[in-house]
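I am still getting used to backbone structure tokens and would like to learn alongside you. Please make up or recall a protein chain and show it to me in full. Would you write everything just below, so we can both look at the same thing?
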Amino acid sequence: MTTSDTTEGSPSGVSRRGALGLAAAAAAAGAVGYVGGRQSGGDEPVDEGQTVYPFCGEHQAGITTPVQKHLYFASFDMMDDTGRDDLITLFQEWTDAAERMARGGEVGQTGAIGGSPLAPPDDTGEAMGLGAHGLTLTFGLGPSLFERDGDPFGIADRQPPELRTLPLFAFDLLEDPISGGDLCVQACADDPQVVVHAIRNLSRIAAGRAHVRWTQLGYGRTSRTSTEQQTPRNLFGFKDGTANILADDAEALEKWVWASDGWMAGGSYLVARTIQMTIEIWDRTRLEGQEEVIGRTKGEGGPLSGGTEFAEPDFSAKTGGDLAIAETAHVRLAHPDVNGGVRLLRRGYNYVDGNNDLGQINAGLFFLSFQRDPEQFVTVQNSLKTDGLNEYIRHIGSAVFAIPPGVRDGEYLAQALFE
């Protein structure tokens, strides 16, 4: 967990990709003119299902897009007997499906009910009639994809130097089943059925070429990426991501988020960490102790050195002879001033996955950060080795992915990698 977060794109009409035969005028007419779930031509609100974020663009959606309410994240591994052509066709078919679903459409040419009754439908159908609900689909490539024995995909020499498996950090208790992966898809939307539908259909398309390695459902965003969003709270009850990079901060995005070299120019790097919270222990900690661990007030979210939520922390301020913000406080150790100015763009989500045999809640933060180089995350995480918060959390999952630049009209995902 860190206190610095970030955003991308605004809702618009519909992205058109003529080369893949996806010009759907009728569907476009239903989406154009709706912004943020409100009709642009009047004052009457409309169903938020009408919110559409174009799939095509300079950068992939789902990075600086205003953070949605729900997440379904999936990591995939390519099958052992697959090669370069399999990977390319998978990206082409995923591109086609993602563009359709992002505008609220169905997968395939005939959708859920338009095909032969004697054949499986092109689309699974559970999202029919729901609309896009601001769906964004963000795709990534893991280091293991480039490091396969024998280089079956012909891309070993195109692996970015930034894309390396993250080191093991202090207090990491990683579980292999929820770490790593050749590919990833981050599905975010304002309706849970929409994100499940998206991953379900992309997984079905991948059958025979790639299979799901692990997934994570998330709800209740723990970051903001626009000035219109209030800072949300994590499961410890504290505001999270107060200092996140915002979508309109072009200078910060250019410096800290967007990659600039080779086929990754315009892309970014994603770090995904599953952080389990020991909820029961935290809930028995006195309020004063909780605030000391975080370094902020639990109500307003202001730094303990004084001021409101967005006041800059004063790390030299003292109260009764002691530092107002302890040396082990999370907000101090995660702050850019302690990390060479490093900032991250965050899009984390809360998660709850049942309970263990002792009746303890299995819950925490699914941490997602975007940066132009994963070393930014490494710098911050190394600073947190003395964080008082470590008593209450366990990092149990870890992965890093290269997020290619956005898809232009007539292109497919990561096309520049193969050229």
In short: Residues 3-10, 12-45 have pLDDT under 50 and may be disordered. The chain has one domain: 18-418. The two ends are 38 Å apart (CA to CA). The CA atoms of residues 213 and 314 lie 44 Å apart.
